Amino acid sequence: MAVYEQFVAFGTDLGGLERLLRLFQATCSLLIAYPLLLATVWPNASQAVQTTKTLGLATMRGQLNVSRRFIRLFRFLDTLQSGWTLYVAEDKSLEVWLGIISKTSLGLFGMTETLTLVDLLGIPGLQVFGPLRSKEIDAQSQYLWFGGLAASVLISLIKLNRLNASGPVQDPTKTTVSEKGATKEASEKSATEAEKEKQRLQEISAKKAVLIRGLVSDSIDILLPGSAIGLVKITSGQVSAAMFFTTLTTGWAAWDRVGEKLQK
Questions:
Q1: For residue range 27-68, what is the model confidence (pLDDT) as tens digits?
Q2: Where is the composition biased (Basic and acidic residues) (predicted)?
Q3: Cα–Cα distance between 246 and 260 in angstroms, integer?
Q4: Three-state secondary structure of 48-105
């Protein structure tokens, strides 16, 4: 029942819903890119039917993309605000500057998506930039996405390095609770310190897991804009596979976030 409640909360959460739609979109892309997968879903279909299914999946993929854009309509405002908050901070380390670059780039990327949303709908008479200009804007915005993800990867590496540097002062499992000639008070103090150290190490381990998951997601996600701007040479099928994988990892993070909210 707890899993069901969490799934309902996940499906009604904007972030979780957007991840679900992205998963469906990535699945459509995979089926289009790899005909063998499509043949597995419809094994007895003729070539004509397979072609029709492919066209239908392409249309569905486009509709899912539009739906996701509506969900992210004003998310860029929050991202830009996060970048501005970092910028006005007094102390600016390398990590902070990278955060400013990441948030600003991703915020501007989201803003370009919002600006071209009406054109993406393809409604005659309501286009703002026109098909050619809107495609050009989307193409140029991939550089912003790439830069934002690259900065995010560097931030994760810096944080992981800092966590590794704050490793165990001593192994709590090998801490001597009582020594020869030690008083009862000293023994209790030693046990308390060992428990605190164990808890600290558990917190570090949990933070590392989150950072590694984010690092893997960003490192693979960067293939999408990297391929679009020509910096990475991969096939459309590999792009779809990368999108599918990172949707699972980022969706997992959203799932955990929703679960934590339910526990409060």
A1: 999 999 998 898 888 888 888 888 999 999 999 999 999 999
A2: 181-195
A3: 21
A4: HHHHHHHHHHHHHHHHHHHHHHHHCCCHHHHHHHHHHHHHCCCCCCHHHHHHHHHHHH
